[in-house]
Design brief:
The complex is a heterodimer of chains A (281) and B (277). By secondary structure, chain A is mostly helical. Chain A contains 15 helices and no strands. Classes of the chains: A mainly alpha (281), B mainly alpha (277).
């Protein structure tokens, strides 16, 4: 019993020092000068524009990766093709590569000194230091989430219902919309939540390709750094609080979805093997 | 389903009747998208790093400042991963075997470093352990501060990898060991730990990969002092800003190589874990 209490103390103390206290202090620093000061900091034009850029980039990157994710999961689970193992392995690269390297990679391909970048510039398309660069960087870093959530679900549901639909005369499109998509929807939603959190919070990769033009190419995470470096801690902490609240919303959504998934599997005792493999508390 | 799924992709290849109904275009579309978004840009970095010849590549990565940044990143990552291997296992054990009010909340909190933007993580640590620390602990702009930031961002990896294995573990073996007179420590070392090892190693590897490339949480916390607190990704960022793209690409290739090796190790550990269960 004493050992158990000691371990509990160590675990909770570690979490408090590493997670809870630092977060608490950020809220304190943001609102320490009063709510009005914080409100003024987050409603200044540059802050609002940065928030808008973050929302815009996320609104492009997440749907792109969701569509790709469903197609890619389908390819991995339902098809056999030559390079399947390579594709599977390469999907993990965005999780392992440094965000700065991602930014550099886009810089090398689309910068003004590269043939591709020069050609695009000659046709009036700016990628680096512009919105397309921010979007490409965000798509890169959040690419695997939907695939990795959907593929196991797709493998689990099998093809019996789809075959039944096909036998009854449904075409491929109808089968997908009416049979496949409803069965994998929780996997898709979970992947979308994770992608959205990653997209809203990406910093390193967008930092390289953004050019840090306040009011133009600055996202909310870049705004945090910019305000801190400009000795405007209230601006930095207030924007950080906005991002932290979005992170909490993500956590809430993840837990809600995990609970939903768990109760679904518990109501289907035949698949208890799957439930214990993929649900954690 | 927790955020581990992103770290521990379930292997679906052996599951039932999956081939048969396929979208004929899906493999092509998936491969093209991944190639365009991920593979071509990364290949371009490798190409750029070696475009001045292999001597230029080695010259760039053997620069004293680049070497110092690599060494610090490597040592700090190892240290952070070792600490989180211990604390992560303790946390997982407490979350699975212990019971106390508020446990569900604590369990949800573990994923926070995955959900919180890295720059916010850096700012939060700076607020508590920086120059205006209310605790009087000043770790900003030190190597300890670098380690602290890495501890923060890698916290969930070990917990979320070990936790499901611990839940699955049979209590009978432990009870047998205890009834045969093994102490709690011996039971843990000889009975529990061997079963946890593949998951633990896979979590540590993922944490290590993450640490080696970490940027956002270190930008503010480390102070970026060359030869002292500058990590590899921050050094690369500085090189890009000063126009040394070839140098930045060379160091990036080193980080890419480390990432590939670690991904290979993770695959190995996960195969071993799958065989063990």
């Amino acid at each position: 019993m004493a050992a158990r209490l000691a371990l509990r103390g160590v675990a909770l103390g570690y979490l408090a020092l590493l997670l809870a206290l630092p977060l608490g202090i950020v809220f304190f620093n943001a609102f320490g000068g009063g709510f009005h000061q914080a409100w003024a900091a987050i409603t200044q034009p540059d802050a609002l524009h940065a928030l808008w850029m973050t929302v815009l980039v996320t609104a492009i990157a997440v749907p792109a990766n969701t569509i790709f994710g469903i197609i890619c999961a389908h390819a991995l689970v339902r098809s056999d093709f030559r390079f399947k193992r390579v594709l599977d392995a390469a999907l993990d690269l965005p999780f392992a590569v440094s965000p700065v390297v991602v930014g550099l990679a886009l810089f090398v391909v689309y910068g003004r000194t590269s043939p591709v970048g020069a050609w695009l510039l000659a046709h009036g398309i700016h990628v680096i230091f512009a919105l397309p660069g921010l979007v490409l960087a965000t798509i890169f870093v959040s690419l695997p989430f939907v695939v990795r959530e959907v593929a196991p679900t797709l493998a689990e549901i099998g093809t019996e219902q789809e075959q039944a639909a096909a036998v009854l005369g449904a075409n491929a499109w109808q089968t997908f919309w009416r049979v496949t998509l409803p069965s994998i929807r929780w996997g898709v939603i979970y992947g979308v939540v994770l992608s959205t959190a990653r997209s809203l919070g990406e910093f390193g990769a967008v930092s390289v390709v953004s050019g840090h033009l306040a009011g133009q190419t600055e996202t909310l995470t870049l705004f945090v750094e910019d305000r801190y470096q400009a000795f405007d801690p209230v601006g930095a902490y207030t924007a950080a609080v906005v991002l932290a609240l979005l992170a909490f919303a993500t956590l809430g959504a993840m837990n809600w979805l995990a609970a939903k998934e768990k109760s679904k599997w518990q109501s289907l005792p035949a698949t208890s093997e799957k439930a214990s493999a993929t649900t954690s508390p | 389903m927790a955020a581990t799924d992103l770290a521990l992709p379930a292997r679906w290849t052996r599951s039932k009747s999956n081939n048969g109904i396929g979208l004929p275009a899906a493999p092509g579309i998936a491969t093209a998208y991944l190639t365009l978004i991920v593979l071509i840009p990364l290949a371009a970095v490798v190409w750029r790093a070696t475009s001045d010849g292999t001597s230029g590549f080695f010259e760039a990565i053997l620069q004293p400042q680049a070497l110092a940044a690599l060494r610090l990143t490597f040592i700090a990552s190892l240290a952070a991963c070792a600490l989180n291997a211990v604390f992560g296992t303790i946390l997982a054990w407490v979350l699975v075997r212990d019971d106390f009010p508020g446990k569900a909340l604590i369990n949800a909190l573990i994923d926070l470093p995955f959900a919180l933007p890295t720059i916010v993580a850096g700012l939060t640590l700076l607020a508590l352990y920086g120059p205006h620390s209310p605790l009087g602990v000043h770790l900003a702009y030190t190597q300890a501060g670098v380690g602290l930031a890495l501890l923060f961002v890698t916290l969930p990896f070990v917990v979320r990898n070990v936790q499901p294995v611990l839940m699955e573990l049979d209590l009978e073996a432990e009870e047998a060991a205890a009834s045969l007179g093994a102490s709690q420590l011996t039971t843990f070392r000889r009975v529990i730990l061997p079963s946890l090892m593949p998951a633990l190693l896979s979590g540590v590897s993922l944490a290590f990969a993450r640490s080696m490339g970490e940027f956002g949480s270190l930008v503010l916390m480390s102070g970026n002092i060359p030869f002292k607190t500058e990590v590899a990704s921050v050094h690369i960022y500085g090189q890009i800003e000063s126009g040394d793209v070839a140098g930045a690409a060379a160091l990036s290739v080193v980080l890419l190589a480390v990432a590939l090796v670690v991904l290979g190790l993770v695959a190995l550990f996960q195969r071993r874990a799958a065989r063990g269960s």
